[in-house]
Amino acid sequence: MDEEIAIIDRTTRNEKIKNFFIDYKKELIIFFSILILILFSYFIYGDIQEKNKKELANRYNLLTINFISGNTINTEKELILMVEDKDKTYSPLALYFLIDNNIIEEKILINELFDILIDETSLEKEIRNLVIYKKGLFNSDFSTENELITILNPVINSESIWKSHALNLLAEYFYFKNEKQKAKEFFEKILILENGNRTLKLEAQKRLNRDFGD
Predict the structure, then answer these.
(1) What is the SS3 assignment for 162?
(2) Integer Cα distance of 93 and 83 in angstroms
(3) Same domain, 56 and 114
(4) Is residue 67 domain-shared with residue 86, that is, in the same domain?
């Protein structure tokens, strides 16, 4: 008797499953078609991203090699376009190469390229903080006090590993302007950082002892 009931239950269950697939045949086909399409698109997107990354690497390497070899045709234009590609690896490298080799002289343009990296490029948190610091470093020779602090504020008000670098930049900025009290305050802030750069902490202590001692 129990065996017969089990057979009936199993038959009923199989019938329900069969009816489910019959009743929802259209919906199931659409669902699995969409699922396959999503998976296919994901792998295609990955392949495209990998291809684009290799193309950017080749472009960057070729441009820098040509520049070093003396062939500077289109270097500025191509590197600017590379920054505008908003790639998290080669866009920062392209901007640094432009600055380090004095390829661009327009300060406004360079700051606009910095802003593309900071505001529009998907950089890792600490890479973004490094770019902000480098923007501050670039501007420190000609910016006003308020402008420089505004640039560096996102790093100064964070727990970034680059915070001590930003504070040191401001300390040196004010020391160069002979505003020694402000410089002293920023050197002292470096000393109390828990995750501050050890070398900068030692240097800040030396500067305080040497230049601000009683």
Answers:
(1) coil
(2) 8
(3) yes
(4) yes
Taken in order 181, 187, 190, 191, the sign of the CA dihedral is negative
- Which one of 76, 103, 123 terminates a domain? 123
Q: How far apart are CA 179 and CA 189, in angstroms?
A: 16
Residues 35 and 117 in one domain: yes
CATH of the domain at 203: 1.25.40
pLDDT at 57: 86
pLDDT at res. 134: 97
Extract long-range pairs of 38-43: CB within 8 Å, 24+ residues apart: none
Mean local confidence (pLDDT), 122-133: 97
Counted domains in the chain: 2
Return the residue matching tokens 């997107």: 45
Structure-block tokens of residue 67: 């520049």
With a cut of 60, say whether residue 183 has pLDDT above it: yes
**Number of CB atoms found within 10 A of residue 149's CB:** 15
| Closest among 193, 140, 188, 203 to 163, alpha carbons compared | 193
Cα distance between residue 130 and residue 154, in whole Å: 11
Contact 153, 135 (CB under 8 A): no
Residues 6 or more apart whose Cβ sits within 8 Å of residue 142: 107
- How far is Cα 77 from Cα 138, in angstroms, rounded to an integer? 20
Q: Is residue 106 classed as helix, strand or coil in its secondary structure?
A: coil
Q: What is the mean pLDDT of residues 37-54?
A: 60
Which residues form the domain of 52? 1-123
